[in-house]
Amino acid sequence: MKKELRNVAQIIHLTPSEKELFMSKAKRYRSVSAMIRDAVAHYDDRLMMGRIDAVNSIEPVITAHQKELSRLGNNLNQVAHYCNGLAQTSAYHTQFVATRIEPLLKDISENLVRETSIEDDILKKLMRSERRV
Q1: CB 48 within 8 A of CB 130
Q2: Dihedral, 4, 8, 9, 10 alpha carbons, nearest 10
Q3: What is the pLDDT at residue 108?
Q4: pLDDT beyond 50 at 30
Q5: Which of the four pLDDT bands, split at 50, 70 and 90, describes residue 64?
Q6: Which residues 6+ apart lie within 8 Å of 92 measured at CB?
Q7: 93 Rama class: left (phi>0) / alpha (psi -120 to 50) / beta
Q8: CB 86 within 8 Å of CB 92
Q9: R_g of the chain, CA atoms, integer Å
Q10: Which of 1, 11, 48, 125 has the greatest CB tally within 10 Å of its CB?
Q11: Whole-structure pTM over 0.70, yes or no?
């Protein structure tokens, strides 16, 4: 079988620091060309496709998560605005805060914990998708 000649050149444009990186990595090879051929031969774009699939699959979760965080932030602003109004009218009573405001803040806090858990799940899915590829 006749060996195919490598007689086609491909010019690439590099910054000086990129060229330095190429030269450094190519020290273990016969030439920079050999290093590039090896890198291309071993490159597997399935990893990137896996990441894209993972991001696409969790996009609805991220959208819902963003809406929920926005809702929680809005609720928190309403509670703060209401408390400021109570303080300005001297109607701020400890009993009222304990029975009405603290349960709202507890609900918001629990929702934030749940939303944080969703963030963790998203990260875990992305990490699993990288390992699968």
Answers
A1: no
A2: -100
A3: 81
A4: yes
A5: confident
A6: 83, 86
A7: beta
A8: yes
A9: 29
A10: 125
A11: no
